[in-house]
Structure formats: structure tokens, C-alpha cells
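Summary: Need help interpreting a holo structure output

Steps to reproduce:
1. Submit the protein chain below together with the SMILES for zinc ion.
2. Request a joint structure prediction with the ligand placed.
3. Inspect the C-alpha cell block that comes back.

Expected: a single structure record containing both the chain and the bound molecule.
Actual: see attached output.

Input attached:
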Amino acid sequence: MRLVVHPFHRFSTLFVSNVYLLDGGKGDRWLIDSGHWTERWQLGAELRRSGYRPSELTGVLLTHRHSDHAGNALWLQREFGVKIYAHRADAEVLAGTAARFRLGQKGNLLERALGAIENRWPAQLRVDRALDTGETIAGLEVHHVPGHTEGSVFYRHERTSCLMTGDTLLTARPPLTIVKDIVPPYDAYSIDVAQAHGSLDAFHAAGFPYQHVLAGHGQPLVDDARTKVLRALEKLPRPTGGAVRPHSV
Ligand SMILES: [Zn+2]
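--- attached output ---
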């Protein structure tokens, strides 16, 4: 596990997607996302190697419901009694009380295959608490940024100026996420990519400051991240016309 910005650490043995540990001391230890179920063993092993027992986690905050982020949430909940949190809209899909959007309709062969895997083995669980915009949990503000999924969120840690973005803002190019880049929500895996871009614009237009981006895929973007993100977004072609131009602060 590597320290990103205290108290955030990034798991270093997970390759499918990022999991972060917020270590605020005993009773204040949270995971941001839980990784893909194929990397369950690595998740548990790295946690223990770093001196933490899964049962002493305070909770898991999901950025969204996709199985590469929520894939170990049920296991942590069932086996270790860890509390799971997600935005209300994704919590309903995870619980099966709202319809699940089917992926695999867009993109190249690899992207369609990955979409089909998500359709076949989605994360399913009842979260312990559904979150809404305006709440703060573990010192993290909840910002609903729908479009990648129904209930995608940003978690902003005001004290350290860290922004946890899940898949609504990536720091590497999908689907393999080897090439470093600042990338908006990805068409092949998003329920409504135009809405996701709009969410990203609206978040920036509201003027929330941040210095560091801890994304769901890619290396952390440390220092001056907001400026870099805005610069990257301005250059991008938009999925539909009429993009909101973000203000700078
Ligand atoms: Zn996703």
C-alpha cells in the first residue's frame, strides 16, 4: 500500500481498478471502493500485510456500483460485518429494486466483452446506508455525478483537497488503463455519457476546489489537479453540443 496524501493510501497489488484506504486511526478506517471480485485474495492479503484486519474497517464507500469497484463489498459485509455505503440510485440497482442497464452495446470487441462480463456477474448487495448529495461521511462530501452509472459520486475531502472520482474522471485511458491521461467518463461503460459529461461540468461550474485526483483507474494526480483537469476537458470533443463551460476559481 502506498501513501498518496495523508490519510489516503492506494492498494498497490490491484490491477483491475483502484482501491484506497482512508486511515484516520482506529474507528476511522474506510475503503474507497472494494475492487473486482477476481482480486479478492490480493485485497485481503494487502490489507493484512499492511497491518489491518478486514473486520476493523469502519466502512466501504463505493464510488459506483460496477463490479470492478463494488465487487468485494458483499464479501466484506458478510464475512467481516463491514458497513457498505453507496449513493441511493446505485444502491437501488445493487439491491435489485431498480432496473440494471445492460452494457456491451457500444465499443470494440474487447469493450463489448468486458461489458458482457459486467452484465453476467454484476455486483449485488444491500448497502447498509444509501447516500445523498450534501452529506458528509468520513470527512468526505458526497457529490452526485450521474451518467457513468445512475448513482456515481465524487467524494471530496475538503481538509486535504483530495477528490475521489471513481470512473467519472479517470487518470488513464480505458479499457486497459496503462496509458496515463485525463479522461472523462467512458462511452462503452456509461449508461449516459452525455449526462456524465454534464455532471463533470456542473461540478466544476459550482467551483468546488481540489488539488489531487484519486481516480478509479490510473495513478493519482497529485498537485494542481483541478487546473490540469479543466485544461484537458476543454480540449475534448463532447458527446453532444452545448457543453457548459466550467468557470475557473
Ligand atoms: Zn465503472
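--- end attachment ---

Reviewer comment: The radius of gyration is 17 Å. The chain has one domain: 2-235.
Status: needs-info
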